[in-house]
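pls design
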């Protein structure tokens, strides 16, 4: 992978998350019956950050869960013959709740589809919304994020690398050139 450009700094990411948190509250007419579920890996700290921000201006903390979609992916065997399965941790009921799935990037839409399958295996929410930091285009399924931090048109040879302090020691979003593979990161 070759560095191509930085498209969001730490300050850009922080401002974007503030905007997304306000949009979540506004679109849901408050936070009653709303919960956040982060998709492993970087969706989890993003969901925690959104919950922190919403708590700051609403005075109440939203429940936050963690969703591992490994076993629900339709490309599981292409990724790894022996996938590493962590665990889903949703310590609250999603029955009748407005669930906001949180992820770092939407690309083909397959991660979001797998997350929907995983979510439905643990309960039946009244509504599911998708919040992503970056929409890079190229969806292959009829799936669209309800909340988008930034649209970044990319080519298929590019990779959108979201770095978060919690997982990578730094927060930013970069475009990398994937020199050997035609599939970017979702």
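designed seq:
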């Amino acid at each position: 992978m070759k560095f191509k450009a930085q498209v969001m700094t730490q300050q850009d990411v922080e401002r974007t998350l503030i905007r997304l948190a306000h949009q979540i509250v506004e679109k849901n007419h408050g936070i009653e019956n709303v919960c956040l579920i982060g998709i492993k890996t970087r969706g989890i700290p993003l969901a925690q950050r959104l919950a922190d921000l919403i708590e700051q201006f609403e005075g109440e903390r939203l429940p936050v869960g963690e969703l591992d979609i490994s076993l629900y992916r339709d490309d599981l065997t292409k990724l790894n013959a022996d996938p590493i399965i962590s665990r889903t941790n949703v310590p609250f009921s999603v029955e009748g709740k407005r669930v906001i799935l949180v992820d770092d990037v939407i690309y083909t839409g397959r991660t979001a589809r797998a997350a929907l399958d995983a979510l439905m295996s643990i309960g039946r929410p009244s509504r599911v919304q998708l919040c992503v930091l970056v929409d890079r285009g190229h969806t292959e399924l009829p799936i669209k994020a309800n909340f988008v931090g930034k649209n970044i048109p990319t080519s298929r040879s590019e990779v959108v690398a979201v770095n978060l302090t919690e997982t990578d020691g730094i927060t930013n979003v970069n475009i990398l050139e994937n020199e050997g593979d035609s599939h970017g990161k979702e």
